Structure formats: C-alpha cells, structure tokens
Amino acid sequence: MTMNINETFVSIQGESSFTGLPCFFIRAAGCNLRCRYCDTTYAQSEGGEMSLVSLMDAVASARVPLVELTGGEPLLQPKAPTLIGMLLEQDYRVLVETNGSLDISLIPEGAVTIMDMKCPSSGESGRILWENIWKLRPDDEVKFVISNRHDYEWARGIIQEQLLHRGVKILLSAVFGELPPGRLVTWMLQDRLPTRFQLQIHKYIWPHDARGV
Questions:
Q1: Using CA atoms, how far apart are residues 185 and 198, in angstroms rounded to an integer?
Q2: In terms of DSSP bridges, do strands 48-51 and 2-12 run parallel, antiparallel, or are they unpaired?
Q3: Which end of the chain is more exposed for a tag (fewer CB within 10 A), N or C?
Q4: pLDDT digits (tens, 9 = 90+) for 113-164
Q5: For residue 196, how far is the Cα from the chain centroid?
Q6: DSSP state, 201?
Q7: Helix residue ranges, H only, 45-192
C-alpha cells in the first residue's frame, strides 16, 4: 500500500490551535484546487510513491508525538484513511488539513480535521462541499484565510450562521503579504467575533517561501 508523497519533515506546527508544538509533517502530493495565493504550489505536481510502512517508520524515527497529514490535498489519496488509522493505533495525535472540497467523513474518528473554508478571493469558494459542516466533530477546526474585507464579511456570515453552535474551533488568518494582520484583528474585535486569530508563524521564523518547515 502506497501514497503519493511530496515531502516529510519535522518542524513546529505553524497554524491551528496546536501552533508552536513540534510536529512531523507528511505532505501528500496532488491537489484538486488552484487557490490564487497557494504557498505550496510545488506539491501540486511533485511527488513519489512511498509505502505506508515506510511512512510509519519515518514517523517513528522522528520521535514526535504530533503528526499532520497535509498537502496538496491528502484526501485525494485513497490510502490516506488507512494511514491515519495506523497512526491512531500507535497513539499519535493526528491532524489532517484538508481544503474542504472532499468528504471529511473519510477521516477516521480520533483524528483532528482542520478544514480550510476557501474564501472568495482564493478563486475556489465555489468548490466547497457544504455538507462537510454537518460532519465536523467537536475537536475539529475550521480555518478561513482572509485577503480583504469581502472575505472577512463572507466568513463572518458563515461563522455566525453555521459554525458557532457546532462547538468547533474557528481560526482566522490573513493572507501573508496581502492583508496586514492588525487590520483583520481590528475587524474581529469590532465584531466581538469569538474566533481565534492566527499567524503562520513558520513564515516569520524562516523565509516565507522556505520548503520543509
């Protein structure tokens, strides 16, 4: 059993409620979306086959209890749920970052889904699988990447109407280099929006276009 993998590496978790923790990343190759501001375009086409056994060995060698499966889009990989299950059986804390266009019920219970709701400025908001909102579990997280005021108001409506009562963690971040983070924080505070603001802290520690971090 194999998966098409772009890269694996140890870094700190740069986003989500797990920000700052050491994490082993498994980046799946291939993506079904083409977001305007994608910062991992290399993962759309670059990759090679790795066996699940080899991936599990790499995780064990890293000696890090937190593992994230990301992409690209990991749910395009037929064996992704199998790998997630194997990691959970070995008591790893597993995060799965997905673009929200594919069925998240494929993700085994026990893993944390971090679902990216694509805002209008991404160019891919029309690809959202809206049924996923009803498949979120209490430990899951929903992320909005905001580029401008229109994105913010669009996200605010979804948060207030669809997400707050579901009890999931809600994350807002600014598109790096486009929207000043302070402006997004100001909007959130003006609206008393009960969400978590986040920076992509790896982009402040290393060069913003660095790979493997």
A1: 10
A2: antiparallel
A3: N
A4: 999 999 999 999 999 999 999 999 999 999 999 999 999 999 999 999 999 9
A5: 15
A6: T
A7: 52-62, 80-89, 149-158, 181-191
Which helix (H) or strand (E) segment holds residue 22: the answer is strand 22-28
Closest CA to 163 of 152, 173, 155, 174: 155
- Predicted confidence (pLDDT) per residue in 77-98, tens digit: 999 999 999 999 999 999 999 9
CA 7 to chain centre: 16
Question: Do you know the residue count of the chain?
Answer: 213
- Determine the Cα–Cα distance for residues 167 and 156; give it in Å rounded to an integer: 16
- % of the chain with per-residue pLDDT over 70: 97
Helix (H, G, I), strand (E, B) or coil at 117: strand
Report yes or no: 55 and 42 within 8 Å, Cβ to Cβ.
Answer: no
Cα within 13 Å of Cα(70), Cβ side: 24
